[in-house]
Design brief:
Largest sheet: 6 strands, parallel
Number of strands: 10
Number of helices: 9
Shape: elongated
CATH superfamily of the largest domain: SPOUT methyltransferase, trefoil knot domain
Radius of gyration: 19 Å
CATH topology of the largest domain: Alpha/beta knot
Strand order of the largest sheet: 7-6-5-9-8-10
Helix content: 25-40%
Strand content: 15-25%
Structural class: alpha/beta
Order of helices and strands: EHEHEHEHEHEHEHEEHEH
Length: 248
């Protein structure tokens, strides 16, 4: 049996990861060394596909940075929470009688930003957070620490395609508002008193152009200083509290 380390967020070695998947452990993502082959690797890849777990092929140097122990070419982050499907999330919100409010995170990659957004989301009554399976920060112990427990109170949904998610939400009567400086409207001019999903973009690039094009509205926060941008978690908090103000 290979060496195994389970803290609050990671596991490595072929047998431990395979057994973890079989036993129902919720994995956030699995890293597999480039060029690996063999029966166990084939079994692992089949399980990853079957359970729709995010995976990425990486050079061995990446794995060596993640752990100093013998990793056998595979390393995985364990999610501290169970994920919910988009359909179940929207259905669950409707059944609760809540006025729907969601956050869509378009490739937010910083774990601490993600954790801070989750914490603010919990405080402002957000019904769920939607993230892409590829290109987002891991839902890890560090994110859990930054969120100070809020991560257990806000449903998190992982989706294959954010554009499809937007179209589905719009078909359910949910307006999608892209928070971007590439707009002439301020967030205060957008009516968010009804069912709304707020899109927040990547720390460096902002919201992708494709997502901006299909959003119902685009709106920005006023920036009065010399620095022309806000940290994404701070911006998200400002937008969410405007929603709270409108709904009071």
């Amino acid at each position: 049996m290979s060496e195994k380390r389970i803290e609050t967020e990671s596991i490595f070695g072929l047998h431990p990861i395979i057994e973890g998947i079989k036993s129902g452990v919720t994995f956030d993502r699995v890293f597999i060394q480039k060029g690996l082959s063999g029966d166990l690797i084939s079994e692992l890849k089949d399980l990853i596909k079957k359970h729709e777990i995010e995976s990425k092929t990486v050079p061995v140097e990446k794995l060596n940075r993640l752990t100093r122990s013998t990793h056998q070419g595979v390393f995985a982050f364990i999610s501290p929470v169970e994920f919910i499907s988009l359909e179940d999330l929207i259905s669950q919100t409707a059944e609760s009688g809540a006025n729907p409010l969601y956050i869509i995170l378009d490739q937010i990659t910083d774990v601490r930003n993600f954790g801070a957004i989750v914490r603010t989301a919990e405080c402002t009554g957000v019904n769920g957070i939607i993230i892409p399976k590829q290109g987002s920060a891991p839902v890890s112990a560090e994110a859990m620490k930054t969120a100070t427990g809020a991560i257990f109170n806000v449903p998190i949904c992982k989706v294959d395609n954010l554009k499809d998610t937007v179209y589905y939400m719009q078909s359910e009567g949910i307006q999608v508002v892209a928070a971007t400086e590439k707009s002439n409207d301020f967030i205060y001019d957008v009516d968010m008193s009804g069912a709304t999903a707020i899109v927040m973009g990547n720390e460096q690039k902002g919201i992708t152009l494709g997502m901006q094009k299909i959003a119902n509205r685009k709106a920005k926060l006023p920036i009065l200083g010399a620095i022309k941008s806000l940290n994404v978690s701070v911006a998200c908090g400002a937008v969410l509290y405007e929603v709270v103000r409108q709904r009071r």
